[in-house]
Structure formats: C-alpha cells, structure tokens
Amino acid sequence: MIAGLSPNTQWVLFSTLILGMAAGLIGCLAYWKRQSLMSDALSHAALPGVVIAFALLGFKSIPGMIAGAAVSALLGFLFIQWIQSSSKIKEDTAMGIILSIFFGLGMMLLSIVNRTAGGGQSGLDSFIFGQAASMTGKDVRTMSALALAVIAAVAIGFKEWKLFLFDSDFARGLGLSGKLMNGIYMTLLILVIVIGIQAVGVILMSALLIIPPVSARYWTQSFKRMLILSALFGGGAGAAGTWISTLGKGWPTGPFIVVVSSSLFLISLVFGFQKGWLAKWRHVQAHKRQAAEPLRQNARKEESAV
Amino acid sequence: MSDLVVAGLSASYRQNKVLHDVSFRVQPGTLTAIVGPNGAGKSTLLKVMLGLHPRLSGEVSFWGAPFAQVKTRIGYVPQRGSVDWDFPTDALDVVTMGLYGKVGWLRRPKAAHREQAMAALEKMGMAGYARRQISQLSGGQQQRVFLARALVQNSDLYFLDEPLAGVDAATETAIMTTLRLLKEQGKTVMVVHHDLHTVEEYFDHVLLLNRTVVAHGGTAEAFTKDQVYRAYGGALRWTGGA
Amino acid sequence: MSYTGWILLTASLVGLTCGIVGTFLILRRMAMMADAISHSVLLGIVVAYLITRQLSGGHMLIGSIAAGLLTALLVQFLHSRGVAHDASIGVVFTTLFAAGVILIATQVGNAHLDVKHALMGEITFVPWNTVDVPWIGAVPQATLLLFIVLLIVLTVILALYKEWKITSFDPALAASLGLPVALMHYLFMTLVSVTTVASFDAVGAIMVVAMLITPAAAAYLWTERLSVMLLLSCAFGVLAAVAGYYIAVLLDTSISGSMAFAAGLVFIVSFLVSPTSGVLARRFRAPAIAEEQGR
Fold first, then answer.
1. Domain A7-205: which topology?
2. Would you call A104 and C87 a contact, using CB atoms and an 8 Å cutoff?
3. In angstroms, what separates the C-alpha of B113 from chain A's closest C-alpha?
4. In this predicted model, what pLDDT tens digit does every residue of B44-90 receive, in sequence order?
5. Do B100 and A163 touch (CB under 8 A)?
6. Whether the Cβ atoms of residue B199 and residue B240 lie closer than 8 Å to each other
7. For chain B, which ranges sit under pLDDT 50?
8. Considering only CB atoms, which chain B residues are within 8 Å of A156?
9. Regarding the domain with residue range C3-214, which homologous superfamily does it belong to in the CATH classification?
10. Quick one: A231 exposed, middle or buried, by C-beta within 10 A (0-12, 13-18, 19+)?
11. Contact predicate B121/B132, CB 8 Å
12. C162 touches C193 (CB < 8 A)
C-alpha cells in the first residue's frame, strides 16, 4: 500500500476507507429521504450511550460501546418521532432539542467518568472529534466487518432502495413494506454512525453522510452511479483525511476527513458533468450559439448576395 | 360479483374527519370518475382503500378479499406531485419499477422486463423519451410515464389520482384512450377527476363525494345538476349539461 | 458580588438572550440553522484570534457575525443551486466547523483557545476575567458582553416587533406588504450569531443550541400568543440555566452539559403536562373527542 506506513496505520487507513464508502452509500439514502440532518442529530445522541457502556463495563470495549451508542441513538430517534407526532413541534426543532439534550447528558456523564480513576486514560474524549490513530487492530476489524455488511445491504437491495426512495406509496402497492424498508434504513444509518464515531467523532460524523452524496449529485443523473460515486468520494475522503491526520502529533481525524470531503465537493460544484458550473456555463454557451446560428447564416447570405 | 365493495368507511386526516360512512360498490368493466370539491376526501379515499392511510372504521374488499391478499391485481397511479422528479433516473427505469413485483425481490430486472416496459412506453407515445431524465420531461410526459408504469403491472383494477391535472391536450387524449381500452378489456378503472366539464364525455360512472357519498351510479343518473349542487354545497355555477 | 452570584447572573443572561432569539428561531422553523451557526461561529472566533492575537469581546463579535452571515449566505447559495435545504446546512456548517477545529489544533495550540473550551464553555472561569466599568467597578468580561448583546437583541426585537411577527408568521404576505424579508432574515441570523458568541464563554458552542431551542420549544407548548411565549421562553431559559448550575455543583460535572439537561427536563415536563398540547392532556381528552365523533 503506502510505503513507510506502519502496518497498523495501513489497517486504520483501510478501515476508514471502507467506513467512508459505507457512509457515502447510506448518505445517499438519507439524502433522498430528505433526512440529511437526522444523521447529525443521531450521531450527537449516540454520545451518552458510549459513555454509559464504558462506565458499566469499566474498560474500553468496542462492541460494548457500539451497542451503547446504537441504543442511545435509537432512543434519540424514537424521541424525535414521538415529539413531532404528538405535539405541534416540527421535525427540525425536535432534532435540535434531542441533539443538544443528549449531547449535554453525554458531556455530564463524560466528565463524571473522566473524574473517576482510570477514566482519564479511557480515550473517551477521542469520541468527540475522532482519533483514528487510537484504534487497535481488533477495533479496525470490527469496524471494517460491520461497514462491509452495510455496503452489502445496500448493494443487494439496490432495486428495492431505488423504488422505496422514489415512490414509497407505489412500493407499498407492489408489496414492498414501507415499515420494513424504514426499519432497515434506520438500522443501517445508526450502524454507520456508531461505527464511524470512533474515527470521525460524534460532532462531525454527519459530514461523512451528508457531503459525499451532495457532491455525487453534480456528476450524474443515474441513481446507481450516484451511489457508486458517493461511495468513492466518502471512501477517498475517509482514507485521505486519516492519512493527513497521522502527519501531526495529536491531530484529530474527523476534521481532516471533513475538509477533504469538502474539497471534493468544491471540485464537484465547479466541474461536475451534470450540474456543475462549467457544465451549466457550456450549456448556456451552446444555447447562445444555436440561437445565433440563423442570424449568422442570414448574414452570410447577405454577404454573398452583395 | 362486484369488483370492489366499500362499507361504512371513515377516516381522519390530521385530526379532522375527512371521510364519514362511505359505502359503494363498483362493477367490473366500468370507468368511474370520483368527483367532489377540494377537501372532499377524494385522494384520502384512494389511499384508505389501498391501505396507505389508516381507517377509523368500515370495510373494504376486492373480489371478496381484503387488499393484502389481492394487491398484485391492483394498480395505483399516485398524483404526479407525490414524488420528487429530481430523483436521478430515466423514464424507462420508472416504468420498469412497475414490474419489480414480478421480477422478484432482490433480483435484477432482465432484458425481457425492459422490453415489456418499452412496449408500455410506446403505447403511451413515449418511446422516444425512454432514456430521458425524468426531471426533463414535461408534466404531461411525466403523467404518461406514470400511466405506462401502471400498464406494465397488468392489473385488473386501477386507481388513478388526478391523472389529467395540469397536462396538455395530447396527453389527455392519450390517457383517456388508454383508460377506455382498459375498460374494453374488462378491467375496472377509478379516476379522481377535477374537471366537471368532461365528466360526461369521459366516464360511464360517477361517484360524487363530499366526505360521504352524495351520489353514485351511471353518469346520466348520478351526475345531475341537483346532485352536483349538493356535493359542492351550492358553491358552484352549474356549467355541465343535463 | 460573590463568585456564585456572578455565575448565576451570567447564566441567567444566557437564558434570557437565548430565550428571546430562540422563540423566533422556532417560529421561523430555523432550529437547525441555529445549530449550524453555533458551530461555524467557532471558525469566526479562531480567525479573529489569528489576525488580532487576542480574545477580546469586540473582535470575537465581528468574527462571529462574519461567520454567521457566511453560513446563512452559503446555505442560501447551495439551496438556490438545487441542493436540498437540510443537506446544504449540513455541508456548510460541518465544513466551516472542521476548518475551525483544524486551525485550533495546528495553529493556535493550547495557548488561549482550546477546542473543548470552545465547545463546552467554562463558566467557572468567567468571574475571574474582569474589566473595569465606570461607576460599577469590576465586571466579568463575559457578563458585560452578554449584557450588551441582550440590550442589542431586545432593542432590535422590540423596535421591529410587529415586523418580526409578520415575517415569521407569513413571509409571503410580509413580502407583498413591501417588507424587506431577505434583509430581516440576515439581520436575524446576525442576532443568532452574536447571541451564540456572547454565550460562548458560559456554555460553549454546542450547548448554546440547547439554550436557544429547548426553552422556546417548551414555551411553544404552553401558549398560542407570541408575547406570552417570549416571556415564558425567557423564564424557562433562566430556570434551566440556574437549575443546571446547581445540578452540576451537586454532581460535580460539566456545567453547560447540566444546563442543557435541565432545559431538557423543563421541556419534558411541558411536553407531558401542558394543558393545551401536553401528551397527558391529549390522552385524557382523546376519549371525549372519539365519543363526540361517534355520535
């Protein structure tokens, strides 16, 4: 792979690559469900679960923390649903409330756990901004396996996802249960968030889900290609950002992944084949030329007549 | 035997009761317009019958069975505005979606399925637009794609929600020709319709709805001046014939 | 004033300011926009610090206003180019926030500004960093800044009270009446930015979202009237801030986290027992409605 990197770093790079791909795919589903910010709310909501799992187990166990984060994020999601379905409060307000309360609770618990013996070395702080370098070989294998499972779930059900996202009423008419699809979607979303927070952190995890699909949208008009591109962008940003963060001592991983992802977005915004600036500009120029063509022919005729 | 029996159906939408004690029967081989003022519950009625919206009370049965057992025999064309046309896909792909049930879940559509979808697009005069991005189709063309998708389902009973709203004259003709053809093949078609001028020309049956059934039957009997006045609460100048 | 007195006063000022701004945030359906601005303000502060090499109130205000307006403009720009609104918010704030964190981690070091402080605030340090104000004496800098921002927010909101009301309730009508809806949108975003930055020392960037949204959402459940909602929202804000402080002292834990948690408690109580829209009230009224409909 990349010469001069330790085997552990190579493994970490590989796992953030796979993670970025999984997040890019699930991000596409969230984009077309119009739930991009839900991922932000859920990743913040995962924090108390991580801390409680650590406090209960007494040591840092990745499967335990993933379970804690999943329970906590799921609770957050159910609260958001409950608040908006049984009061006049709208979805974005409900997300803001849950996001900040859960995060506040997480910080309360974190400072209590950090105060108690051994907590300071727990590395729990790295869950805020992500510290890919702190991952062990076992963490990496767990993360990669789960991320691969997520990628497989999207690939196998590609046709069903497309139908469900484009026209869920019609899908139900064909016998594709909306409840089932929503359930799988939520499970995958929470899974990607909780396996991602150790590398990227709870605050910026949502960027990995939101930015790649928006970038991919500028290049293509096919859902399949949008998924593939989004996965490539996400995976590329994951690996490149992690690599950059290893260059400095104690640099957080999450922010670098996000900045690489944003750079890809800027490139897409300008050069994207379908909706990018250059494509639009050339489209307009072509139109102008077409509109001007008859005039020019007339002018030529007149010239030859003279 | 009736294709569709609805008995004592009630439903609410955002805590307002929009359907109250709706009962009617639909015979096979009929082309029925569902007509009523805004907020009369026309779209909700379709959604409740298709199990897309919860009902408070009442029964709906198709060929004597509940919806879940016969859903493959029923085709639904939702309102054009109910989906996001920016979704990255093309016309042929949307029509192929109508075959997903037959393709089988988790399997890929084969060339034969695409040919079937292509044939349906051709019937709707849309063959030349098969590979066109759906956001670049006109409103009428989008509606024809939706109808083509319903055609490939080859259902026995069709529900269409406002298929003629905001479409061009060519699309209106194409859609009505197709619906009449379906009827002649012995299929049953129910259409939510908003244009009172064309009810008598296009449909052989009418269901006048305003939260409950105001009148139902052959167009000549049900679609009379008095009944329409009752359905619209007098808030309408009579423009039809009869 | 005593040490605790200053802390409580500062916390209450956060509750008041956020309560006022939060009410309009909810009514204008921009809760997540506040989340976005509170994150990107970090970049504004870091850049202001890198340029001037000092963390004074004035520089921070200017930096945060610039960052807040940049966020609002970029979100608007992406949205106008066909990106879904919530996705635009997500792209913009995560990018700006990440840039801010990287600048802190690589440029600023841990000298005066560290990430955790910026995110979580450190209200216990507030009373020690004082400035002299004529006639009053030594006042903590953060408290003074919050007081000034509260005055600014109050002035802008009260002076244009009916304009805010109508642009929040029906922007289309407001535009047809000739009100500068877009200008008011950016003015409001400016208010959100200055509120955020003034609350920074006390509660930090993320918890300010809790103080902006949660008390106002709780107030929204109790009343239909804007004036009552504003007063309730302020009262809930102060309550959450003060209760949060004592919870934190009791459990010896993060003060800003406890304030967010206390705001959450206020919201949960409102959500359950509010006489008009609480879950319990609905449950008890539901059979009555069903009965009525059954007849």
1. ABC transporter involved in vitamin B12 uptake, BtuC (1.10.3470)
2. no
3. 14
4. 999 999 988 899 999 999 999 998 888 889 999 999 988 999 999 99
5. yes
6. yes
7. 238-242
8. 106
9. ABC transporter involved in vitamin B12 uptake, BtuC (1.10.3470.10)
10. buried
11. no
12. no
